[in-house]
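Regression report. Comparing outputs from two consecutive submissions.

Submission 1:
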Amino acid sequence: MVTEVSSKAELSRMVLENSGVQAVLLNKKDSSYLLGVFELYVPVGQAAFAMQILNNEITN
């Protein structure tokens, strides 16, 4: 997952970890100019499950 919003990225990471999915948040935002994104990574074997969890959170 990629987003420009830090709170969305952190919330998504917490939702995944609370569901048992290991997640790593990478901050690629330049603090001087507020450019860039936050990238959320999960193990390849859990990617489909992670997407399902996040999609369910968005629709609920």
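Submission 2:
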Amino acid sequence: MSPFYLVLKITILCAIGAMALSAQDAIHADDLERYEEFMNTVSSSQFLGMYMESAAVKIDIYEYPSNERVQSAHFKPSPKADRYFQQEKEHADALGAWAACGRSYVAELN
């Protein structure tokens, strides 16, 4: 795979990212204030897991490096929630494919 192709793919992913929905877009307007309050509790040593569960958006907060779940909350999904989670899946799939291409390109160089 040529370096040009990798640069082109990164450029396309960045352009898509600029138009991307944010996590906040997945939360219904009625729940945005509570969402903001919840997000303000996240510290720099924590990370999030966000997914759909029982027709609600669930956000788990985990402590790093133990990976222990320390807090969870459910929020009413917005009409854009399904698109947000589909977008996140597509980004993860694209990054996984990109990482695999990068590994094979490095192997070709060696």
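Expected: both submissions complete independently.
Actual: both completed, but the second showed a warning that disappeared on reload.
Relevant detail on submission 2: The CA atoms of residues 8 and 21 lie 22 Å apart.
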